[in-house]
Amino acid sequence: MNSSTAKNGEAREYIESTPKRQGKVGRHCRRFWWVWLIAFCLSILVIMIVIVYAILPAVGQKELDKTVLNLHSFTILEPSPTSLLLSVNSTITGASGIAAHSRLEPMEVSFFLENHKPIQPFMSLQLPGIKGGSAVPVITTNVTTEITSVPGLTEFSALLLGSETLRVAIRGRTTLWAGKLHTKVNYNEVVTIKGFNQLEGMEIEEYTLLNQTQQADGSNLGGKVLIPNPTVFEIQMGDVHINMSLNGQTLGNGTIPGLHIRPGNNTYDFRAKVQTSALIPLATALGSGNPVVLDVRGNGTDINGVSIPWLAGPLSALNVKVPIKARE
């Protein structure tokens, strides 16, 4: 047999064997179709498990961590020793990827001071469901919240009143939905907040002597005081009591009744009982034409006679220089 015959035989054998192998594969598939179906379903299941339990949680958490909470207003009403009535107006920005097209279920978040060791949440707030987008409003109105730590809230109040800025951490856990898929995620945010900066800029704008015998509370001085509020906080503080002194000499005590402090520069009524022995030095100082600056320290606060300790303590720690505006 020559080489050409051998080559032709090999080619013929190869050509003939190929259909045989294809036939065997076809028969195998028809016979064991259910095995292949199960294998396919298992493959899809494995892929879905990887997506749901590995990829989606990691990607969802990463994208959620990129978002930023912008606080526009924070209102505290009906304060008591154990609870608050909260309203919050804010937006979440910076969402991208999966976070921009997903939604979060309603969740409860806790507030605590950043870097406080140990973590000491001082209050919590129920937030509504949040949909993805470039600027998503997050608004709650008049939600009654229990105080979870009076010492923690007292420390927060002290920083809010005494600092130019402070950082507050917010933490919660909820479910993120991406279409029909969902996963648990942690909401972790730290917000930089403007503080009252020790009530810098506080000033007595008007004052007048009162006939003490005609006043039910015995006040002999009244007027209006300017209290600047550079923060986003609106706080119902109740009757705020103060001690006053001038050049180291005690003048007496006063009250800013029903103080409801709002953002911006606002004036509020005040009344005071100045000691008789201090009236002449005070009148002399006011009549001299020189600037008169009082030392004012908080002495507690109450609403309907009920003391608010987490406000009273921080107010008592403030020693504010309050000038008396000269009369024109």
Automatic annotation (TrEMBL):
Domain of life: Eukaryota
Spans through the membrane: 32-56
InterPro entries the record matches: DUF3712, Tag1
One CC-aspect GO term: fungal-type vacuole membrane
Keywords: Membrane, Transmembrane, Transmembrane helix
Protein's name according to its UniProt entry: Uncharacterized protein
Phylogenetic placement of the source organism: Eukaryota, Fungi, Dikarya, Ascomycota, Pezizomycotina
